[in-house]
Amino acid sequence: METPVPLAQLLQALEAGDLTAARTAAAALQRAGAQTSQLAAEVLHELRQPLLGVKAYAQLLAEDGAAPGPLRLLLAQVERMEQIVSDFIRLSSERPASQQRLSLAAPIWAAAKHFSINPDSSRISLEVEAPEDITIQGNARLIEQLTLNLLNNARDAMAGRGRVKVVLTMEGPSPALYVADWGPGIPEELRARIFEPYITANKRGTGLGLSVCQRIAREHHARLELAPQGVIRDVPPPATVFRVLFPATDAPPTQKHRVLVVDDEIIIRMVFRDLMGKECEIIEAASGEEALDLLQQAPVDLIVTDKNLPGMSGLELAQQARRLHTDSRVILMTGYPSLVTTQQALELGVVDYLLKPFDDIREVRALLRSTLARKPAPAPLETDPAMRRVDVLEDNPAAAAQITHALSLVGLEARILTTTELAALEPPAGVVVSWDFTPAYGRKALELGKALAQGAPFVVLAEHLTMETALESLRAGAAACLPKLMSDASALSRELNRAFKREAP
């Protein structure tokens, strides 16, 4: 790339040792940079006018009864473009973006959704591992833009079909975001300069995406860099891995979490008091009725209850607690687990199961800490009653046909998906995911189904329904976990209709 004239003059003056000429050239270079930033800001500002027109006419088309799905997506993209313009104008004026404590998973999943909407991404298999309990002080919109730029950069590096993986994890006290691809890799001669503007190994790219990522990372006091290939433990290893390492931040001081422990055995209540009493306010109840009286006085952050209580059972308590406070979180304890009670717990929104006697009390503490660290799951979205699409992750043709028939009996339409490629549309009425889904088996299938549901209920079907399968489904937030081979299609349709809380057609 040709060296800008002011910079060339500065270099020449420095080589000649002419201090006066160097100062003059440096001042000219500074003015040129300011003029370039101002010009960019003005151009971006002018883009707002045509965007406003596009948005206005899209809204008018919606009023005239045009197809709402595509228009909703169009409006979302226009609003996103408006926000990008605002962000770049702000960057050019060097004004800091507002920041707040946020879960990194939310903007990462939002970026994955926007990535999958792009037709160019249909050839890419995208995998996302983003736990919800990793938080930073930052700007969600900018983190989404950073992630999307890294995803687009990975996609554009691959000529044909390819694979991209996003992993959010902790490295010691610091959150770390990895974006890996199995493309051709970055040439050795470009690796040291890859974050400079207009430097790219991709013929389709402008070379600005990574430069923008670097600016966003610096605004969050994070470090963006190329990471070793082996940091992503896959076989074969990825060709390119980018890492964003965020600073370790201490969460602001908060009040102690309130945990209600319900058990008729005093020794169990004492165990929880000694286990968590230093970091939580432990409230005790010997029965479900006593627990309800306490909940009517004030909500708690977590309820840990025995299933077999005298009088009101733990499952009944969970149901009543959810009626009092819709965001109540319940962990159920039992010494007699069964698929029936696990299924009932799923329907009541129980977040986890503790099996008595406890094998390792440290694991119990870890479960309580991780549950309290997560924000309560939002209430399921109220989907459009006219929405009939149910996304089905099933690669077995016979099972897919059975599910399609069962859904049709209650007026729902199956969209069969046989790969892990995200195909985000407007939120479906629900999602059916096979535990035995070959491209993403077990837990990965659950993560994929939950992401695809976008807040709608999702149901897990398993060829061999076990306690492990049901418990994993419960922990993932599934609405139900059912056997694939039910007595007939009518039985399956009734269970699916109940899980999706739809009225019979």
Automatic annotation (TrEMBL):
CDD domains: HATPase (cd00075), HisKA (cd00082), REC_YesN-like (cd17536)
EC number: 2.7.13.3
Catalytic activity: ATP + protein L-histidine = ADP + protein N-phospho-L-histidine
PROSITE patterns reported in the protein's UniProt record: HIS_KIN (PS50109), RESPONSE_REGULATORY (PS50110)
GO molecular function, one term: kinase activity
Keyword Iron-sulfur among UniProt keywords: no
Gene3D superfamilies linked: 1.10.287.130, 3.40.50.2300, Histidine kinase-like ATPase, C-terminal domain
Keyword set, alphabetical order: Kinase, Phosphoprotein, Transferase
Positions where 4-aspartylphosphate occurs in the chain: D306
InterPro entries given in the database record: CheY-like_superfamily, HATPase_C_sf, HATPase_dom, His_kinase_dom, HisK_dim/P_dom, HisK_dim/P_sf, Sig_transdc_His_kin-like_C, Sig_transdc_resp-reg_receiver
Superkingdom field: Bacteria
Residues of the Histidine kinase domain: 42-250
Residues covered by the Response regulatory domain: 258-371
Enzyme category, top tier: transferase
PANTHER family: HYBRID SIGNAL TRANSDUCTION HISTIDINE KINASE C, TWO-COMPONENT HISTIDINE KINASE
Protein name, UniProt field: histidine kinase
